[in-house]
Design a protein that fits this description.
By secondary structure, the protein is an alpha+beta fold. Helices cover about 35% and strands about 30% of the residues. Strands 4, 5, 6, 7 and 8 form a five-stranded antiparallel beta sheet that branches. Strands 1-3-2 form a three-stranded antiparallel beta sheet. A hairpin with a 6-residue loop joins strand 2 and strand 3 (about 55-60).
Length: about 130
């Protein structure tokens, strides 16, 4: 799966203390996943580089990411089941996010709960 290599590259660079990381390949799902992480302050700016192949992304790291992972297969989650997945995947309450793909786009679990929509779990980060 594409996102596994991207997230592992980010986590490994973060653990090594790097300030930026180059990941490839890029896709719409990866870019939207990174946008949610950026909105919550886990990563800094990122830039897409079009190499006329699969694309690359340069991500600025800010040292706030502990762990990031992909949930495979993408389990279906109803809006009332989100809380049980939060308890299962995140280390404590109010710490970290679960990223879902819904009919309203890719968003974190809190936004999905506010909009009362379910979807498929893509991954988590804290």
């Amino acid at each position: 799966m594409v996102r596994v290599s991207v997230l592992n590259g980010i986590v490994n660079a973060e653990r090594r203390g790097k300030r930026q990381v180059l990941v490839r390949p890029s896709s719409k799902v990866v870019v939207r996943f990174l946008r949610v992480m950026q909105r919550h302050g886990y990563i800094g700016e990122f830039e897409l580089i079009d190499d006329h192949r699969s694309g690359k992304i340069v991500i600025q790291l800010i040292g706030r990411l502990n762990k990031c992972g992909v949930i495979s297969p993408r389990y279906n989650v109803k809006s009332y089941e989100i809380e049980s997945w939060v308890n299962r995947l995140l280390p404590s309450r109010g710490f970290g996010i679960i990223i879902l793909t819904t009919s309203s786009g890719i968003m974190d679990h809190e936004e999905a709960r506010r909009k009362n929509v379910g979807g498929k779990i893509l991954g988590y980060c804290y």
